[in-house]
From TrEMBL:
NCBIfam families reported for this sequence: PRK00241.1
The protein's name in its UniProt record: NAD(+) diphosphatase
Organism whose genome encodes this protein: Bordetella genomosp. 7
Enzyme class: hydrolase
Biological processes, Gene Ontology terms: NAD+ catabolic process; NADP+ catabolic process
Residue ranges annotated for the Nudix hydrolase domain, each copy included: 122-245
InterPro entries assigned: NAD-cap_RNA_hydrolase_NudC (IPR050241), NADH_PPase-like_N (IPR015375), NudC-like_C (IPR049734), NUDIX_hydrolase-like_dom_sf (IPR015797), NUDIX_hydrolase_CS (IPR020084), NUDIX_hydrolase_dom (IPR000086), Znr_NADH_PPase (IPR015376)
This enzyme's EC code(s): 3.6.1.22
Keyword tags: Hydrolase, Magnesium, Metal-binding, NAD
Catalytic activity: a 5'-end NAD(+)-phospho-ribonucleoside in mRNA + H2O = a 5'-end phospho-adenosine-phospho-ribonucleoside in mRNA + beta-nicotinamide D-ribonucleotide + 2 H(+)
Length: 253
């Protein structure tokens, strides 16, 4: 099973979601030994990236990994892991301390510098997500950085020295000017864009009026019972599950 990435795109068969075989990899100039294992104990699952100028072999196409998640089904998590392992290998070819070419440790996912001993493991970036509730209403926001963004829960990366709870209070105040309390854990999901761990909560409104952080949030509104909801995230994402689990009575999606 070969996961071949071009940027954020995955190579799949034009007629479906079948992954490329050895002959398709060879047409891209990829030899089996050049691919990175996705699991150390299973050499049959491998991954790598190709340059942005690479063309798909005949019968195949590069498609957005994000767009494929709903089609990949049980293989979605594996594709996400492959992307993160691939990105780690791509971005740690040289030591960040002395610029010496890195070498794989072999017994674990670790790139080690043979000159200075610096070790680099696959990066995981924790990010909080929170759906704010006010009585029978929920707060949905549209992020400013994505032109086609759906309305979703608030989210942001945890900063150095913060707990998840600290990050929730800070991000909600920064992005929409609201205070929250009664934080409750909902669930988590590995999110490979590029190496996040999304940790989702609900929280109760504790005060304030919506005040947007313009460079982060384009729109934020309360949606209550009977309201027509805007487009919300896909069911395969933790955001989609979080919102759907807390829909107001009679809300229309």
């Amino acid at each position: 099973m070969n996961f071949i990435f071009r940027g954020n795109e995955l190579l799949v068969h034009e007629a479906g979601i079948a992954l490329p075989d050895a002959s398709a990899c060879a047409l891209l100039g990829l030899q089996p030994g050049a691919l990175q294992q996705v699991w150390l104990d299973d050499p049959s699952i491998r991954t790598t990236h190709v340059p942005a100028t690479s063309e798909a072999p005949p019968g195949y196409a590069f498609r957005s990994l994000r767009g494929l998640l709903s089609e990949l089904g049980e293989h979605a998590a594996l594709a996400g892991r492959a992307f993160q392992i691939c990105e780690w290998a791509r971005t740690h070819r040289y030591c960040g301390v002395c610029a010496t070419p890195m070498q794989p440790a072999g017994h674990e996912f670790c790139m080690r510098c043979p000159a200075c001993g610096m070790s680099a493991y696959p990066r995981i970036s924790p990010a909080m997500m929170v759906l704010v509730r006010k009585g029978d209403s929920i707060l949905l926001a549209r992020h400013a950085t994505y032109a086609t963004a759906r309305h979703t829960a608030l989210a942001g990366f945890v900063e150095p020295g913060e707990s998840i709870e600290d990050a929730i209070h800070r991000e909600v105040m920064e992005e929409v000017g609201l205070a929250v309390d009664n934080l409750r854990y909902f669930g988590s999901q590995s999110w490979p864009f590029p190496h996040s761990l999304m940790i989702a909560f609900t929280a109760e409104y504790a005060g304030g009026e919506i005040r947007l952080q313009a460079d982060e949030i384009a729109e934020a509104n309360w949606y209550g019972p009977g309201d027509a909801l805007p487009q919300i995230p896909m069911r395969e994402s933790i955001a989609g599950r979080l919102v759907r689990a807390n829909l107001p009575a009679g809300a229309c999606t």
